[in-house]
Write a structure and sequence with these properties.
The chain is α/β, with parallel strands linked by helices and 275 residues long. The protein is 45% helix and 15% strand. Strands 1-2-3-4-6-5 form a 6-stranded mixed sheet, sandwiched between helices. Helix 1 packs across helix 6 and helix 7 packs antiparallel against helix 8.
């Protein structure tokens, strides 16, 4: 098995591929939302650029924000489970919805706002399906409060890669995002679906560009620097705690060598803490 250096779930690659190949993005969004492709008359990407000043920012959010037939649609990839993803996606929905109101409009003019999240971890352990769709419903009667709230989650770990069918476009698209090896991509290519072959070729082309490689290099350096800063902060915090413990132990009359052993400080450092 040949592991892919960069997968479709890599946020930078995801954004660069689909903002450069809008026809593929339009088809992907139509499939994820269950829309007929020819029913989409208006399709606009609202944030197509990756500003150069954010290339090295570990925390920049590389979503794709769109207008689809007047709806606000936001699509993003999330690889790691940081424990607060439902709250995070709800926050993004609220931000997109609340900023859609234009001067002179009423609340009823606010557009339906949809957040689509493709996640590489399991969110709903009590449900075996890979797609969950949430709306604002009354708890007992299940009456819809409004049709303007919608969250979609696609959980890649639950997607079976066996027996892929060329007619099941949703599973084919998600299989691309789940692919980890060259063999996984080849399995999809061999089905002979033009759209999937086009998507794989777009992925390979973008991944080979100097633009992508430079962005990826800056992104990885930002991650390395952040990890180093966290390790240094942890070491500093441990040392400060040990110094405080040593000061307290000095007040008990415990021998210096025992305090040094208990705190990891040198005997000389412990002795220097005496007032």
């Amino acid at each position: 098995m040949t592991e892919l250096e960069y997968k479709f779930t890599y946020d930078l690659l995801f954004k660069m591929v689909f903002t450069k190949h809008v026809k593929l993005l339009k088809s992907l969004v139509a499939t994820l939302l269950g829309l007929a492709l020819d029913s989409i008359e208006l399709f606009q990407i609202r944030n197509p650029e990756i500003p150069p000043e954010t290339w090295g920012d570990k925390f920049c959010r590389l979503d794709i924000n769109m207008i689809v037939n007047g709806l606000r649609v936001d699509l993003e990839i999330q690889i790691n489970d940081e424990g607060d993803f439902p709250e995070r996606s709800l926050y993004y929905w609220a931000r997109e919805y609340s900023t859609a109101l234009q001067e002179g409009e009423t609340y009823s003019d606010l557009p339906k706002t949809i957040i689509i999240s493709i996640v590489n971890f399991t969110m709903f352990k009590d449900y075996s399906g890979f797609h969950s769709e949430f709306h604002a419903l009354e708890a007992t009667r299940h009456t819809q409060l409004t049709d303007k709230f919608c969250l979609h989650y696609f959980e890649l770990p639950k997607l079976p890669l066996e027996a892929l069918s060329k007619t099941d476009r949703l599973r084919l698209w998600l299989a691309l995002f789940k692919a980890k090896t060259e063999e996984d991509l080849k399995q999809i290519e061999e089905l002979g679906v033009d759209e999937m072959q086009e998507a794989i070729q777009a992925y390979k082309t973008v991944a080979a560009t100097s633009e992508f490689k430079e962005v990826a290099r800056l992104r990885e350096r930002a991650r390395f620097n952040e990890a180093s800063a966290l390790r240094n902060a942890e070491r500093k915090g441990r040392r400060e705690r040990n110094i405080e413990i040593a000061r307290n132990l000095l007040g008990t009359g415990l021998p210096l060598d025992q305090i040094a052993k208990a705190t990891g400080l040198s005997k000389k450092e412990v002795e220097g803490l005496r007032g």
